[in-house]
Amino acid sequence: MMDPLWLLILLPVAALSGWVAATVSRFQWRSRNRVPKAYMQGINYLLNEQRENALDNFYESFDADNENYDLLFPIGNLYRQKGEIGKATRIHQLLVERTDLTGEQRSEAFYELGFDYYSAGILDKAEQVFKELLQNPRFREKSHNLLREIYEQEREWDQCISITKKLNRFSSEDYLPVLAQYYCELAEEAIRTGNYNKAEDYVQTALDTEIDCVRAILQSGRIRAIRGEHQSAIEIWKTIETINPKYISETAGLVLESYKALNQSHKAADFLKKVAETEQNSQFAIIYVDILQSLNREQEAEKFLLNWIRKHKSFDCLNRLVLLKLKSSTSIKRSDIELIEEMIINQTNPTRHYKCQRCGYDVKVLHWQCPSCRVWDQFEIQQSLQHSLVD
Ligand SMILES: [Zn+2]
Asked: How would CATH label the architecture of 1-147?
């Protein structure tokens, strides 16, 4: 719906005066009383593009019995947008209580009142409102979605699942990937409390809901690894490479630990090398070098680092090469080696971070739900170029 007040602000003054005249005329025609002085002052402020003063004057002239519903409504919404939830709630509450509105108008006011509560974080009241609007065709999808978001904030995953299943039945959007995330949340809680059988059931349900759910695949491998079934865990994690390669780096640490548990670090080295080359990621190249070093394959590590530096101009890998050479040096004093090592480590910042593809929010650790826009499964690994020699 186009807000009349926004129209009022955006229109050129010539067109504006016509709209205002019509609005005031209708107001006068409908109202049994005279037009309030504050209301007229609000119109003047609008004509002079003094939006803040205009809004306050409209609020002062606000009268619950005022029949000018079309104008009162956007004023309430504008107050909510400005963060003045108390004023927005008062307007919407009084509109809901009026007996002269049509059913449609009352439902709209009721929905906006629910949104006021939601914006103010009064989630129990917002929940009551949206529950009452679930069957209203105009607000059905919005109410289902807002209830879903309320239950997410309350971490009521069973409620999230219930409302999202209903939503998915009639919405044109596909909510199955989100539904799978809720099962993963339940699986995570079960893993935390040591209830691995239950966790496995939730993971399976997540995969039945969304067969390519990477989070569920990661969890499935974790449960196997916790049980000591490392080979099986590794095989599960490696499937991510074909299902969704952008998450392959998330499996690197897990695969490494399981190979270590199996005393097969050489296989971990092969896997890390592949991840580093696929992802063109210097951090994984360094982990690969660490493994080679732990296997006493220093010469191979040195050769790999040199090739990597030539190809990617990575400053982090250059630092790693210096550290490797220092370790084998016999001409530099031990105390000097330690000093140089400390200096190199201190000036090397982690370059791995994740960015939400929806809103651009940047984090150091992978989140399954964006803390900013609250959309699920939107983070992608980013590589900072701040340590590249070509900068
Ligand atoms: Zn986001």
From this structure: Alpha Horseshoe (1.25)
CATH 2.20.28 positions along the chain are: 349-391
CATH 1.25.40.10 region(s) of the chain?
1-147
Encoded tokens for 33: 């009383």
- pLDDT tens, per residue, the chain with 391 residues: 444 444 334 433 333 344 444 444 444 444 444 556 656 566 665 555 566 666 666 666 666 555 566 777 778 888 888 888 888 898 898 888 888 888 888 999 999 999 999 999 999 999 999 999 999 999 999 999 999 999 999 999 999 999 999 999 999 999 999 999 999 999 999 999 999 999 999 999 999 999 999 999 999 999 999 999 999 999 999 999 889 887 887 888 899 899 999 999 889 899 889 888 888 888 888 889 988 988 889 899 999 999 999 998 888 888 888 888 887 777 878 888 788 878 877 776 556 689 999 999 999 888 999 999 999 999 887 765 443 333 3
* Spatial separation of the C-alpha atoms in residues 91 and 228, rounded to whole Å: 61
Distance 289 CA to ligand 1 centre (A): 34
**What does DSSP assign to residue 193?**
T
Distance 25 CA to ligand 1 centre (A): 46
Give the torsion sign (CA, 330, 336, 342, 348): negative
- The residues, ordered by sequence, that sit 6+ positions from 264 with a Cβ below 8 Å of its Cβ are none
What distance in angstroms lies between residue 370's CA and the mean position of ligand 1's atoms? 5
Distance 57 CA to ligand 1 centre (A): 37
Residue 146 Cα, ligand 1 centroid: separation in angstroms?
17
CA distances from 18 to 5, 21, 151, 275 (A): 14, 5, 46, 66
Cα 354 to middle of ligand 1, angstroms: 11
pTM: 0.76
Q: Which CATH number describes the domain made up of 349-391?
A: 2.20.28
Ligand 1 centre and the CA of 155: distance in Å? 18
Note the residue count of the chain: 391
Distance 322 CA to ligand 1 centre (A): 39
Q: How far is the CA of 353 from the centre of ligand 1 (A)?
A: 14
